[in-house]
């Protein structure tokens, strides 16, 4: 200890003024067991002007240091003679700066306090903590915002995050639609509330500009007291002290504006905070515009798809119809297989059912099925002349720019008494099957040329009568060519299909479709497959004709 | 309605009348029973859950006991569907939505749509806006629907445990876009243990329970945390599930070949009988795979004892299951979890004390 003190000084109570002691780069104060300053070097004298030798620590140094001295005395007394670990330093402010005080005991019971300036480190640590918190927030914001492609959810997530971390109240205003502003509010700690408000965005300075993507107004330019009422969440009380309006930048177009509000008693937004709010707004804007774009695309796809999706099949003019469709690609809803049903002009006329397969898969094939379906709809009045329908369709396909061909089965279906009469024509398509009441499965003897490949086609129709409980099945080769089964690589095949169908005697049409689809799906066992479509046409059972009374009127309208 | 409610003791008679109508394939009589019950003051929800839902339970039980063919089962379901559809249009049943929006869907490849359909109708009655996506909804379609339409929650139905891995994909998919999932159906276990295992946000034993949980509000999953499927099931890291699921066809072939060597009687099987035996083995391998996925002994042992009951009801000696388990244990000798599951299943089979027989598989 003595060596550090350098040259001996005149006596106790006098400040060291020369030698190494005086040159020490840190302030050093030595105090004795009674808490009286014994020595202080010049650096200490500059920092703590009143802590002169003889002065009391309690009166002349910051409280935290005086307290640390008392505690260190107790600890050193308890461990007298031990040369163990030095006690941990204490720290605290001295004026505007922050110091760490390291104690070293001397044998005489005095303690030397070495004061090290830690201000820069503390500032750096605080900055690091703030940055970590912000990075954590931005990561969370990205996780939350990128999760949803739904505009409403995205807007709600944006205000909820902003109200949690950035402000007391957060509001997202989307660009106006038909003169109204979609607005979502969130108050910190509460859930988001959405609304559609007829209001003028220019009633808040900076909002109209932000909605058009102009650079933001500095928040000090916006007076919280001038905030329009429509912007505040219902039931919000209190005054607004500080407002930030920032644009949510989208992909080329602004996705809306983010408004952050702080209550009057809270600190105003600093410039730093405004910059951070814009960083958040950039992420929220990107997520929102992706959601908006996805929404628009989905709406367009749904509109276009509506015409391509298979129609609902149900009872029509006393005949049960059911259809099932499974496209090849799991992510798509349409493909190259199709079916359709067109009612005749009156309930006494035959309905036209078609099931077919355009060569190819996916959307390209689906577009052609749409064309075939609308052509066939126009040809429905010729329901009695399949050959003519097929010839006209063939001509239309040959003249189109599509280089694809198609196979299909046409069926004219008409109920007569309890029976259902069918005229079936295959155009290069797998043979339709009939399951009789006793489980016998018959092939319908019709054949013909496929459509859209040759200038001349031939076809031979067949007539079939279904008794109640009997079903005619039209299907595409996706079923017979399904590969799988318990051993993994077998074809489903026509024989297996017939065997399955033979167990479907006397089943409702939709149950036949469901049963075959289910077995084929089990057969595939998650494996890949072609498009698969089927239609069941059944003559309904008529066990309940006795019940034609007032209560059950309208059941048999045939 | 001003009419007095249907007394509780009238319900069994109504159920019997409905059962008679459905099994005799008389859809109109079935509709009559249901509309009469409504007219007599039975609440629409009670019609759905106390008349129509028990019907489905009975269909399943009768099929297991071999008193109902698969085709009759399909027909009964089709008729029930039609009756539910007719009921939904009844003036007494129409309800304006006042609550949030719920999507009801069956897991991919899940064909039993009726329980989900009943839930959808009950939720509609209780004032939810319901999107019913039907049977076997591919997860990609479910997620696309949720992106486009939003939902406060997804109710996911699965009755067959082999679809649990697909259910897991659907649950994590919904949660990844911030929508909570309530799971239901026999696949998730009678106490919902597999729903918990797969990280569903809620589980309900029946439609009423699901409606109550939804009304109480199911908290949305925490998106900030980021979640991966393997986090729920760390045992998947041993790749046993992946191996068994991927080599299913080969395993079935091996078991079939060895069975034929061990039981000369099988040589006389025709192609159809042989295929049925292969299907039974494929089912066993399927359940082994899903039990590996969930690391759940009772899933596989439960399936084996259930299969034994089904076989016995069809006069096929259930003792034939034992050699299949033995051969699988030989084939999977390097897979500790598979061996554990197979061992547990053999013990369960012994405990069930199934009468022994000589011919494996091949029920017609």
From TrEMBL, chain A:
UniProt xrefs under SMART domains: GAF, PP2C_SIG
A Pfam family: SpoIIE
PPM-type phosphatase domain span: 316-539
Domain of life, source organism: Bacteria
The entry's keywords: Hydrolase
Hydrolase among keywords: yes
Domain GAF positions: 150-298
Protein name in UniProt: Serine/threonine-protein phosphatase
TrEMBL record, chain B:
Residue ranges annotated for the B12-binding domain, each copy included: 99-225
Keywords: Cobalt, Metal-binding
A Pfam family reported for this protein in Swiss-Prot or TrEMBL: B12-binding
InterPro entries membership: Cbl-bd_cap, Cobalamin-bd, Cobalamin-bd_sf, Met_Synthase/Corrinoid, Meth_synthase_dom
Keyword Ubl conjugation: no
Gene3D superfamilies on file: Cobalamin-binding domain, Methionine synthase domain
Protein name, per record: Cobalamin B12-binding domain-containing protein
Organism whose genome encodes this protein: Actinacidiphila acidipaludis
């Amino acid at each position: 200890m003595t060596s550090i003190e350098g040259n001996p000084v005149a006596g106790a109570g006098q400040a060291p003024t020369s030698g190494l002691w005086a040159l020490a780069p840190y302030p050093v104060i030595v105090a004795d067991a009674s808490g009286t300053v014994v020595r202080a070097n010049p650096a200490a004298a500059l920092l703590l002007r009143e802590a002169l030798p003889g002065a009391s620590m309690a009166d002349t140094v910051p409280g935290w240091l005086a307290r640390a001295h008392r505690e260190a005395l107790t600890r050193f007394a308890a461990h007298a003679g031990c040369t163990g670990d030095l006690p941990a330093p204490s720290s605290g402010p001295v004026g505007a700066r922050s110091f760490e005080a390291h104690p070293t005991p001397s044998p005489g019971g005095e303690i030397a306090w070495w004061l090290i300036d830690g201000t820069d480190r503390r500032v750096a640590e605080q900055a690091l903590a703030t940055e970590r918190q912000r990075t954590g927030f931005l990561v969370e914001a990205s996780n939350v915002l990128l999760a949803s492609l739904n505009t409403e959810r995205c807007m709600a997530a944006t205000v909820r995050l902003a109200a949690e971390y950035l402000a007391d109240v957060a509001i997202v205003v989307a660009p106006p639609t038909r003169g109204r502003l979609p607005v979502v509010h969130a108050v910190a700690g509460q859930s988001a509330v959405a609304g559609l408000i007829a209001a003028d965005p220019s009633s808040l300075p900076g909002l109209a500009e932000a909605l058009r993507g102009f650079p933001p107004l500095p928040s000090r330019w916006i007076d919280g007291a001038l905030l329009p009422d429509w912007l505040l969440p219902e039931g919000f009380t209190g005054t607004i002290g500080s407002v930030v309006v920032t644009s949510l930048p989208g992909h080329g177009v602004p996705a809306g504006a983010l408004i952050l509000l702080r209550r009057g008693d809270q600190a105003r937004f600093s410039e730093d905070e405004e910059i951070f709010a814009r960083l958040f707004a950039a992420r929220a804007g990107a997520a929102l515009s992706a959601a908006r774009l996805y929404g628009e695309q989905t709406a367009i796809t749904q509109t276009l798809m509506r015409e391509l999706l298979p129609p609902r099949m149900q009872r029509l003019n006393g005949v049960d119809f059911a259809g099932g469709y499974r496209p090849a690609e799991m992510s798509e809803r349409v493909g190259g297989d199709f079916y359709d049903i067109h009612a005749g002009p009156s309930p006494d006329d035959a309905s036209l059912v078609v099931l077919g397969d355009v060569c190819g898969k996916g959307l390209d094939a689906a577009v052609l099925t749409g064309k075939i379906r609308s052509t066939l709809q126009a040809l429905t009045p010729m329901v009695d002349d399949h050959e003519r329908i097929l010839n006209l369709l063939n001509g239309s396909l040959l003249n189109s720019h599509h280089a694809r061909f198609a196979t299909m089965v046409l069926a004219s279906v008409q109920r007569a008494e309890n029976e259902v009469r069918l005229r079936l024509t295959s155009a290069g398509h797998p043979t339709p099957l009939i399951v009789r009441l006793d489980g016998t499965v018959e092939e319908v003897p019709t054949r013909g040329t496929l459509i859209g490949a040759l200038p001349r086609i031939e076809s031979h129709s067949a007539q079939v009568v279904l008794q109640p409980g009997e079903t005619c099945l039209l299907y595409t080769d996706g079923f017979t060519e399904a590969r799988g089964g318990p051993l993994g690589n077998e074809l489903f095949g026509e024989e297996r299909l017939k065997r399955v169908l033979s167990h479907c005697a006397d089943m409702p049409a939709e149950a036949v479709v469901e049963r075959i689809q289910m077995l084929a799906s089990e057969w595939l066992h998650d494996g890949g497959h072609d498009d698969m479509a089927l239609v069941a046409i059944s003559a309904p059972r008529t066990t309940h004709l006795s019940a034609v009374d007032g209560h059950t009127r309208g059941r048999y309208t045939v | 309605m001003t009419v007095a409610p249907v007394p509780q003791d009238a319900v069994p008679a109504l159920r019997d009348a409905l059962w008679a109508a459905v099994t005799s394939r008389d859809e109109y009589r079935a509709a009559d029973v249901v509309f009469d019950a409504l007219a007599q003051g039975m609440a629409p929800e009670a019609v759905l859950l106390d008349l129509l839902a028990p019907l489905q339970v009975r269909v399943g039980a009768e099929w297991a006991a071999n008193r109902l063919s698969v085709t009759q089962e399909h027909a009964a379901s089709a008729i029930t569907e039609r009756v539910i559809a007719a009921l939904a249009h009844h003036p007494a049943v129409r309800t304006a939505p006042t609550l949030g929006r719920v999507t009801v869907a069956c897991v991919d490849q899940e064909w039993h749509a009726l329980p989900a359909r009943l839930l959808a109708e009950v939720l509609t009655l209780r004032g939810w806006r319901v999107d019913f996506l039907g049977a076997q909804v591919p997860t990609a379609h479910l997620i696309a629907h949720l992106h486009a339409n939003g939902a406060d929650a997804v109710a996911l139905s699965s009755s067959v445990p082999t679809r649990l891995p697909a259910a897991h994909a659907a649950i994590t998919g919904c949660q990844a876009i911030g929508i909570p999932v309530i799971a239901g159906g026999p696949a998730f276990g009678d106490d919902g243990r597999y729903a918990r295992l797969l990280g569903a946000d809620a589980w309900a034993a029946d439609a009423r329970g699901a409606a109550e949980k939804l009304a109480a509000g199911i908290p949305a999953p925490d998106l900030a945390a980021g979640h991966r499927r393997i986090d729920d099931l760390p045992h998947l890291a041993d790749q046993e599930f992946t191996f068994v699921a991927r080599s299913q066809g080969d395993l079935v072939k091996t078991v079939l070949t060895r069975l034929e060597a061990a039981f000369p009687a099988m040589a006389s099987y025709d192609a159809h009988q042989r295929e049925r035996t292969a299907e039974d083995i494929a089912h066993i391998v399927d359940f082994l795979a899903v039990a590996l996925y969930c690391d759940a002994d009772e899933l596989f042992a439960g399936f084996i004892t259930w299969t034994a009951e089904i076989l016995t009801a069809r006069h096929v000696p259930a003792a034939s299951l034992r050699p299949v388990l033995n051969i699988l244990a030989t084939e999977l000798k390097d897979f500790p979890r598979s061996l554990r599951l197979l061992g547990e299943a053999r013990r369960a089979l012994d405990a069930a004390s199934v009468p022994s027989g000589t011919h494996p598989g091949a029920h017609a």
